[in-house]
Design goal:
The chain is α+β, with helices and mostly antiparallel strands. 51% of the residues lie in helices and 15% in strands. It has helices spanning 2-52, 61-74, 103-110, 155-170, 172-205, 220-276, 283-313, 326-336, 357-374, 414-417, 436-439, 445-448, 473-483, and strands at residues 79-84, 87-90, 116-122, 125-135, 143-153, 322-325, 343-346, 352-355, 379-386, 400-406, 487-490, 500-506. The strands form 3 sheets. A 5-stranded antiparallel sheet has the order 2-1-5-4-3, with helices on both faces. It has a 5-stranded mixed sheet with strand order 7-9-10-12-11, with helices on one face. It is rod-shaped and about 170 Å long. The two termini are 42 Å apart.
């Protein structure tokens, strides 16, 4: 914009200077020539009237030559040509007058219509030729047949106007330079608040809601700055209100979850006692006891997941990281839940990274649990180190570790791929809840602390999605991955069907190799 403003200013100044120069030259030239013409006409008329008073007609060649000389002397030595019928006399015998007195001017003078003049160019030089007829002094304005022409050199007038044009043209350069300087100053005046407004807008877009611009003056830019400040203020107020409401909601969830832990612990103990004696109860009572136990365990998982989510939202989640063999961590997680025989493993040895083993266990439990529950065998877990380009097989030279869990089930529908990590989202709404009698079995104390359930499913502490999960498992898994500086990616739809999830973590080591 600065360049456009400067170019526009310079073009306007140049056009104005050229136009002014052309007009000044035309007016000056016209004024100079007009003054010269009027002077020449008046002088010739007065001089001819004075000399013709004592001139006898008809003249002879000698008297006509004397007449021309006397008129010329009174006109400042201009060349004078006197004509009477066939006689012609020139004040300067050596002057060539034929090329300077045109036939049109002679005809106009001979017609007796008064003094006439004409500008002509002869041999590259400009001349003014004035002609007048001599009339009798008897009041009838009758022509005497005597014609007088005066030739005036216009070289001086031409030089004057040319000098004026040169001086004006020389003034164009300073004018254009001054216009460019003024354009730069004007552009700075106009663009400076625009730049400040643009910088404030970028800061606002980057999250700095306190960004403001100074308002100076009362022009359109000041109105724009004032409107921006009002908009930013309203946005900041709305953001503060939303943050306060969100903080209240998070505190509410955390407080409710915390308050539920104590009664749930008591309920869990009672449910455990009932389940232990279920075989001695009537069938309906035994089924009710097992249902209460399963639902209590499910509610306990939900409360634990809500507490975990609250810690992530509050920024209170911390890593307890240490250098860990990832293959051993995955095997231990699967063995804890009784999934070792149901999963095909491809875990190379020696892949070590600094991670929080408990949180990696939660991620593995969620990914593998969902594959076993909603997918179809074979379920495969693959561990690999990848390089900067993301190609597997980079080996020790890689900078990331990828743990992929894949199955051969129906896969994820397109709408679920984008929402699979949303809280409380379940891909199959028909499986969001089943009757407890269909799936609930007695769970011992091991199930309450995250151990395997007797049906081979995940323990309550796994935080899994699906029919028996809380709907928070995938969200918790993603938050744990992000806490490590990594992420969980949804793999592309496979030709043979099935879903694939990849845990991607930076490969940090305590010995400095692969550190970010």
């Amino acid at each position: 914009m600065r360049v456009r403003l400067v170019v526009t200013f310079v073009l306007v100044a140049l056009l104005s200077a050229v136009t002014a120069t052309a007009l000044a030259y035309r007016d000056a030239r016209t004024a100079v020539l007009q003054r010269t013409q009027n002077t020449a006409v008046d002088d010739l008329r007065e001089r001819v009237a004075a000399v013709a008073a004592g001139f006898d007609l008809p003249p002879d060649q000698r008297s006509l030559s004397r007449f021309a000389a006397e008129v010329s002397e009174g006109l400042g030595a201009r060349i004078v040509v006197a004509r009477h019928q066939d006689l012609t006399a020139v004040s300067d015998a050596y002057a060539d007058t034929e090329g300077r007195i045109t036939a049109e001017l002679r005809a106009a003078v001979r017609a007796g219509d008064g003094t006439r003049f004409q500008r002509v160019e002869w041999r590259g030089e400009p001349y003014l030729v004035v002609g007048t007829p001599v009339t009798y002094a008897d009041g009838d304005r009758r022509t005497s047949g005597l014609e007088v022409f005066a030739i005036t050199d216009l070289a001086a007038e031409r030089d004057d106007t040319a000098a004026l044009l040169d001086s004006v043209q020389e003034g164009i350069v300073p004018v254009v330079m001054a216009a460019a300087l003024l354009a730069l100053l004007a552009a700075g005046t106009v663009l400076r608040p625009v730049r400040k407004l643009g910088r404030a807008t970028r800061e606002l877009a980057a999250g700095d809601l306190g960004s403001r611009v100074a308002v100076r003056g009362h022009d359109e830019l000041a109105d724009l700055a004032r409107t921006f400040n009002e908009t930013a203020g309203a946005l900041q107020s709305s953001d503060a209100e939303l943050r306060a409401q969100e903080a209240k909601a998070r505190r509410f969830v955390a407080d409710v979850s915390h308050e539920l832990r104590t009664p749930l612990a008591a309920m869990a103990m009672v449910a455990t006692v009932l389940e232990e004696d279920a075989d001695q109860l009537p069938p309906d009572a035994a089924r009710a006891a097992r249902t209460v136990g399963a639902e209590t365990a499910r509610l306990s998982r939900l409360v634990e997941d809500l507490m975990e989510i609250s810690r992530f939202d509050a920024g209170a989640a911390r890593l307890n990281a240490s250098e860990t063999d990832l293959a051993d961590t995955v095997r231990a997680s699967l063995a804890l839940r009784g999934w070792t025989d149901r999963v095909t493993l491809d875990l190379p040895e020696g892949v070590r990274a600094v991670v929080d083993r408990r949180r990696v266990d939660v991620i593995v439990a969620n990914l593998v649990g969902n594959a076993l529950r909603h997918g179809a065998p074979p379920v495969t877990v693959t561990l690999a180190v990848v390089g900067g380009g993301g190609a597997p097989g980079a080996g020790e030279g890689g900078d990331r570790v990828v743990l992929e869990v894949a199955d051969r089930g129906p896969g994820l529908p397109p709408e679920a791929r984008e929402r699979v990590f949303d809280r409380f989202y379940k891909a199959d709404e028909a499986r969001t809840r089943t009757t407890a009698t269909a799936t609930a079995t007695a769970t011992g104390p091991a199930a309450l602390d995250g151990g395997p359930a007797p049906d081979g499913g995940p323990g309550p502490g796994a935080g899994l999605d699906g029919g028996q999960g809380s709907g928070l498992g995938m969200a918790i898994a993603l938050e744990n991955a992000r806490l490590h500086g990594g992420t969980i990616e949804v793999g592309a739809q496979r030709p043979g069907g099935g879903a694939a999830f990849a845990l991607v973590l930076p490969l940090r080591r305590t010995d400095g190799e692969g550190e970010e």
